Amino acid sequence: MNTSFHKKFDKRLAKLPPKVQKKAIERIELFQHEPFARILDNHALVGKWTGYRSIDITGDYRAIYLPISENFAKFYAIGTHPQLYG
User: Residue 47 belongs to a domain with what CATH number?
Assistant: First the structure.
């Protein structure tokens, strides 16, 4: 899966604690090779994020992306569950 990143995603990623940044990079690399790996808990979103999908980064952190095509996704947001959905 090819990916790109919105500039807001990049800014938020840069502000995360180093351990979370590292885990985010690992999970996105896994996503690129196996987008529906069980550990990612890849799922569709509803409400203001209808049409987008989310993957787990850590117990509380999520990354939100928009599937553009079968082989391309663009990441838009990363943060804790309350930051993203609250």
Answer: 3.30.2310.20
